[in-house]
Amino acid sequence: MEKEVVISVKGLNKTFKLPHENAGSIKNVLVGFMNRKRGYEIQEVLKNVSFEINKGDFFGIVGRNGSGKSTLLKLLAGIYTPTSGSINVKGMLTPFIELGVGFNPELTGRENVFLNGSLLGFNRKEMLLMYDEIVEFSEIERFMDQKLKNYSSGMQVRLAFSIAIQARSDILLLDEVLAVGDAAFQQKCFNYFEKLKKQKSTVVFVTHDMGAVRRFCTKAIYIKNGKIICNGTPTDVADVYVKENIEKASKTEKTSEVISNLHEVELNTIQKENKIILNIVYKTDNKEGASVGISVVKDGISIAEVTTAHNKPLTGKGKVSYELTTDIFNEGSYYINAALFNLENRGLLAVTKTNKSFIIKGADITRGAALKLKDTWEYSQ
Fold this sequence. Notes:
Elements: E1 5-19, H1 26-35, E2 40-54, E3 58-62, H2 69-77, E4 84-89, E5 93-96, H3 109-119, H4 124-138, H5 153-164, E6 171-175, H6 183-198, E7 202-206, H7 210-216, E8 219-224, E9 227-232, H8 234-252, E10 257-258, E11 264-272, E12 275-284, E13 290-298, E14 301-307, E15 316-325, E16 332-342, E17 348-352, E18 357-360
Parallel strand pairs: 3-7, 3-8, 5-6, 6-7
Antiparallel strand pairs: 1-2, 1-4, 8-9, 10-17, 11-12, 12-15, 13-14, 13-16, 16-17, 16-18
Helix pairs in contact: 3-4, 3-5, 4-5, 7-8
């Protein structure tokens, strides 16, 4: 059965004029005319972008800052008009691009709920029926009678999102709505996304979070310099995005940091099937001896660590090797760091901040966990 296309984008181009001079005076205008120089340049933000979104897709749009993804979302929302190309949308579309647009800082949270609800097309009777659910989701019941100008940015986002999810819509546009919320509120948003996905709602989701792309999206595109460079499964798109970011980081970051010239550590890796061989070269002048440690990092958090044995102190110069089995990891991207420690007090002597990394592909049914546990379940009735 052929799926229904609800968003069709064909040959989409968007350009902006970037002024180079202030033409606010007659003199500037005359000088510019006499010099026959254009006072602006053309910026091509999107270039020949084409894709389709079917009914029920959770469609991810990823890309680095300045790639054009937010411009694309605003074009889909009708905020911008295309320079050329076409966008066809079938059904009612609600953009969550700038949460809280329409809020009045001089009104209370309660008053802003009804104001924002009216902008979404609800009458007062409908908002009265929704009010308790909105407040419960936002978790700011104590502050509903305070003026909005006294709210923190996080509280405003909570309230805005809690109202916005009530919208009656066929298609939702989400642009990094989780960036400001705290961890607990983000989990609420994730639960809401799970609900949308289960209900086969049509969602267009712009994000930098590859974990969220893998977890929620059914399709995705990667935009780079205004062009789609990858269009496919969420895993494929996330892998390309992560790989390109790793390669970019490797060209700009320092490969090592030496705390003292007396102590150095260097890491090299050899990747084989289901394992990575870590070869670590060290130098230390520490008389009490030293130990080498490695750390596997995901999303900025160390999720696995190991050090050389304390009953085998390292002195002078040498090399140690470690075999890292990769089948213990779920899908995702990981970094490996190595460090040299004082054996006596665990003080840091030297650290290698490498861009040594590896990507695990495949389906992850554990909702983003880094490590796999052995299947030792016992069943009984």
